[in-house]
Amino acid sequence: MIVTIYLIILIYFILGGTGFYFINRKKEKPEARRNWIKFITYFIIIHTLFLAIVFSTRAFQVIGLLIVLAGLLEIFRLFSRSGYTGKGYFFLSLLIFMAFGAGFILFSTLDSYLILFTFLVLSVFDAFSQICGQLMGKRKILPSISPSKTAEGLLGGMMMALLSSFLLRGLLENSINKTIILAAGIILFAFAGDTATSWYKRKYGVKDFGKIIPGHGGVLDRFDSLIAGGAFVALLQMFF
After folding, report:
1. Is-contact 42 127, C-beta < 8 A?
2. How many other CB atoms are found less than 10 A from the CB of residue 1?
3. CA distances from 195 to 123, 163, 180, 190, 228 (A)
4. How far apart are CA 192 and CA 200, in angstroms?
5. What tens digit of pLDDT does each residue of 221-238 get?
6. How far apart, in whole angstroms, are the C-alpha atoms of residue 47 and residue 43?
7. Do the Cβ atoms of 165 and 177 come closer than 8 Å?
8. What DSSP designation does 137 have?
9. Please, which of 10, 14, 179, 219 could form a disulfide with 70 given CB 3.0 to 4.6 Å?
10. Are 35 and 23 in contact (CB under 8 A)?
11. Listed residue (196, 219, 235) closest to 107, CA to CA
């Protein structure tokens, strides 16, 4: 099962790399280079988390905790750099993030197959939203919050993620319908989490939370959707 899933991941990376090739053909060399750095960094991140989930859930728990702590630091840092403006907005954002962060930490303790399913669906949604958006995107859906998001990118990412949930259904004991519904919820929360962090950045006038991850920005720039989607799955496990 795990070998088959890994082969699926490699196929997706080949498709993604092909998409980046066509995207970069129309870009200037510096921007194309940044795109390839982003792709390579993403490859390393996906493999690191995949190995942690499959071979050491304790390692993934530690990584999850570090992601949440780094996210808190980035939220505080933007607030301080703004001269501590928008205190009400900051504290509301902080409470929301802490709730989702706690949910994500709980998520990291769940069954490894459920974690792996969620992680892969989120990764496919995130990656192919960007690729489809850059290849075909024309209709902007949140121009004032996240100018790069397009309807075509969102639809492409959703379709690929839902297809992936069907291919990965062997990780769960759910029916096909329940698997698709679970994947749809994960996608919805991932999109909401990504949008919320974009909104926070625009509020404080920055493009990225930081520069710690080459080609991606800060920790929240890379893991916002994973935190939100993971928290959603943890919430389902708690109450349903």
Report:
1. yes
2. 10
3. 16, 23, 22, 9, 11
4. 12
5. 999 999 999 999 999 988
6. 6
7. no
8. -
9. 219
10. yes
11. 235
